[in-house]
Amino acid sequence: TFCFLLQLSLAFAAVLLLASPGPSEGATPVCCTNPAYVQAWTPWFDRDNPSGTGDWETHSDLQNENPGKICDIPRDIEAATLSGLSVGQAGEAILINDKTTGFVCRNLDQSNDKECSDYKVRFSCAPATCEEVCWTNWYNRDRPSGTGDWETLIDLQKQYPGQICAEPLYIEAVTVVGETPAILTGDNILFYSPTKGFVCRNQDQKSGYCKDYKVRFGCHCSSLSQIAANMVKN
């Protein structure tokens, strides 16, 4: 099968990857079988602006306007202003912000006769397929003893050069102890995205502390093969 041949072709590369400095719990990149709690995100969508009654980014409207691009039952939703502020940072009164209905900000709910900001939204969906997707090692660069657990893509790429593809497709985060999926721990997660990484802040938790997490990324197998080829050349 494709996966078997690919694993053979990556065997030597995997030895090189594991021989270089890296996480203690490293594992050979393998063809994926869609882990149950992989986090994958749609593109950002912005169907409305607040010039009327507000900004209406509902799941049903977005599905109708973007057929085949948004799953029927999202796992999560993320909303941000077009300028990049999170909902919390924007500080506006939000009527709806949930994965089932979508996002709605109404002008009439804002103070001082202000309009809502213009928002964009995206949804987390289970990966439809893992064809030609391979997984990196597990990485655990931070502990929650400071401000939280910061497993950001940019920091991990700097700390483990050449081991993570430039543009991951998927991310998976689990606890170091027990390997509980992050979305089942009850921790409030600041972000959990294949293009940004994973961050849990202590200040957002009722207990005052996040659990300790490790993460891995799903990449096109060809990109991991190229990383291995470059290591051989060097």
UniProtKB/TrEMBL annotation:
Cleaved signal peptide residues: 1-26
This protein's name: Uncharacterized LOC108233388
Subcellular location: Secreted
Keywords: Glycoprotein, Secreted, Signal
PANTHER family tied to this protein: CARTILAGE INTERMEDIATE LAYER PROTEIN 1, CARTILAGE INTERMEDIATE LAYER PROTEIN CLIP
InterPro entries: CILP1/CILP2, WxxW_domain
GO cellular component, one term: extracellular region
Residues of the WxxW domain: 41-125, 135-219
